[in-house]
C-alpha cells in the first residue's frame, strides 16, 4: 500500500472515530451530561468506577486511535502537497503534527484519569476532584479546544486546492469546519463551535479520504502536468 492510499484509509479512520464519539455522546453518555448539557461529575465518577473499560474504550478510540491515524494522514498530505508547494506543505505538516500530538496527549491523560478515579471508587469526593482537574487538562490539550485542528484543516484545504491534491468540496467543508474549530477559543461559542467542527470534520475526513484513495501517484501527476 502506498503512503497516499494509507493516508486515505487513515482519513476514513479519523472520520470513524468522530462518528463513534458522537454516537456514544448521544447514547451511552447522554445521562452523564456530556455534549451540550452540563456534565454531572458525580455521575461520571460513579460510571467510571463501575465501567472503567468502557471509558478506556471511549478515550482510546476518540483520542489515541484518532491521533495515530491523523499522523499518517498528516504525513500523506504533506507529501502530496510538497510535490507542488513544498513551503506550504512544511507549514501544514508542522501544524498537523502538533495537533496529533495534542490529541494523543489528551487521550493519555484521560485514560490515566480513569485509572485513578477507578482506584478511588471508595472515596467519591476525592475521585470527583481528581477527575475535574484532569478533565480540564484533557480539554485544554484537545478535548474542547480545537485551535490546532481548525488551523490545520483550513491550511491543508487551501493548500490542497493549490497543489491539485484536494478539490473545491474539501476546501469549502474544510474552511467552514476549520473556522468553527478556531471559534472554540471563544467561551460563549465553545460547545456550539465544537459541534460544528466535529460534524464538519467527519465530512471533511471522508471527502479527503476518498480523494487520496483515488489520487494518481505523484510521479504520474508530474508527468501529466509537464
Automatic annotation (TrEMBL):
Q: What name does this protein carry? A: DUF4386 domain-containing protein
Origin: domain of life: Bacteria
**Where does the chain cross the membrane?**
9-34, 54-77, 89-114, 139-162, 169-186, 192-213
The organism is Roseinatronobacter ekhonensis
Q: Which UniProt keywords apply?
A: Membrane, Transmembrane, Transmembrane helix
